[in-house]
Amino acid sequence: MQRNVLQVVFLGVVLSLTAQAGTISGKVTGVPGASVVYVEAIPGKTFPVPAQRPVMGQMRLMFQPHILPVQQGSTVEFLNSDSVAHNVFWVSIGGNKKLGHNLGTWPQNEKRAFKFDTIGAVPLLCNVHPDMTGYIVVVPTPYFALTSESGEYRIENIPDGSYSLTAWHEGIKSQSKHLDVAGDAKADFTLSR
Amino acid sequence: MLSSALPADVFVMKIVTTIGALLFSAALVFGQDTVRHAAITAVAGESWLHHLHRPFDETSMGKTWRLGPPDLTTDRDALSTRSDSTTTRSGTHVRTLHGSDLYRMNCQGCHGESGLGAPPEIGSLIDPVRATSVVLVEQRMKKVGMELSRRQTAEMVNQSRGALLKRLHEGGQDMPSFHHLSEAEIRSLVAYLKQLAGVPGAEKEQIAIQESDARIGELIVKSTCHICHDATGINPTPAELLEGAIPPLSVLPMRVNQAQLVQKVTSGAPVIMGTTSSVYRGRMPVFSYLTENEAADVYEYLTHYPPTELASFNRAPQLSRPDPIDPSTDSSQTRAAAPRPAPQTASAQVLISRDQAESVVLPVGMGLFVTALLVLGCWITLREFRRLSIESLARAASRRPGVDPALWVKLPATVELLKGSPSADAGSMEEIVVLKILKEGK
What we know:
The complex is a heterodimer of chains A (193) and B (442).
Chain A: H1 2-16, E1 21-29, E2 36-39, E3 55-59, E4 62-64, E5 67-71, E6 75-80, E7 86-90, E8 101-106, E9 111-115, E10 120-125, E11 133-139, E12 144-146, E13 152-159, E14 161-169, E15 172-181, E16 185-186, E17 189-190
Parallel strand pairs in A: 1-16, 1-17, 3-6, 5-11
Antiparallel strand pairs in A: 1-13, 2-12, 2-14, 3-4, 6-9, 7-8, 7-10, 10-11, 14-15
Chain B: H1 6-35, H2 48-52, H3 76-87, E1 94-97, H4 99-106, H5 108-111, H6 126-130, H7 134-144, H8 150-170, H9 183-196, E2 209-212, H10 213-228, H11 238-242, H12 252-255, H13 258-266, E3 271-273, E4 278-280, H14 292-304, H15 345-399, H16 405-409, H17 411-419, H18 429-441
Antiparallel strand pairs in B: 1-2, 3-4
């Protein structure tokens, strides 16, 4: 999460040399727990694949963090910190069942890596421990944020422009809205089951 | 035809058969030892809780509160009948154990009767076992909406199976290794784990095995007692007991006799603790799920195979039976001077070398035997080919006009004669002779 923020900050600094940059902030309500808010693909604009490898850990029989938003093209490392073996598999990416994959089963202190090129939510499961669930949310731009448990978020260093902003929450249909950013902007979402 | 060559073959065959038979019987003798498995060894080293640096009172084992009676008003009659029944046990009894028995002896102490453990300290074994079932994995995948091919499911199941067996053999951060279990015991145990975890059809796959009393004692001690009790150490005083000392296994015969141990393990017994020698319920949980016979096996095992300090080669000789302890003396008041000296140090070397011999001789011998068979097979085949070709040549020769049919009958003798000459190439000898015959016959 922190890394992602840093990444956003870095990109923002680079972009701020050419354009005015602002901040989108707001709150996602109506659902308990954290959500992901991100800027949808911007026509005519591509972003370099981040060199950093975000880590999705397995710790105390849980996926840590529970939700990990990553930019499209990121390679995620799955690190097992438990003394028992864990398996990681997902049924689909963005609802596409053809992209289901079994990453394997591995012991403590070992990790596996996977490059996520397709946009969408990846529901993570463990064959050994059925109670374990986690999500990787692959987003198209570097402008994204994981909300706090109470739903607040802040996407910083976003250049002025017109965007489509989406809020994702596990098990719920995502919600998008149009947003014009000139300096600071605010966008709240109310999701419901 | 050409039968004079056969006696040599028969001789070779005899030798090979003898060697083979010898090796086979050797394999059987050594093999039986390993099949009957796992020569019984003494328990050694610090307890698992010591290894984890975890105080007993902070463990789920220390919090069971399934303790013994609070005072000395235990049923003395029951105790005496108990002692009668247990002292008449024969030493080399063999009993049939089911996977459920192996589970009680090795796993239940920590994972409980249900296998759910005591999270977060002790994990549940149910889910990791369910993950090894093709049927259950398929069911779950269907439920979460994942389409897996048979091959992918099998791969997933195999990975889980591998992880489970690795866990059993090697243990983990919080779980000790169970490398003292034999393959047969693991098979029987895993079959029961599947039944416990509700794997469909597992009830039909239960495997029973035969175990000696001593082995039963060994399993219970190594898998259950040794979690909390060190193998060796000093017999604690009542004051030290009150402060939390756990008596090491080596001082057990100084503290209790067999009947008392059976009582303590299966239904609990009060202990004298503290400087005022008051009577307490003690802190050891009651292992009501162990039978009196099994508790007696523990005592027999600990007296026949005295615990040792180090977890190295420590096969205790069966002969070193410790002196019987007089149960009438109040052993809890006497303090053991030192850990019981390992009586087997002198013979340890011999036992190690025998151990190594078993593990080296068997594969090497089998390897040699197989190689010998292969070489012999090739040799006989080549020889046979050559003989057949000569025979056909000789037949051809005999059909030629003017050749004396008696000539080729003498062939083998001629060959033997020629072989004697140093310049002759033994390989093509027969052919030369036949050609010679053919020439001469013209």
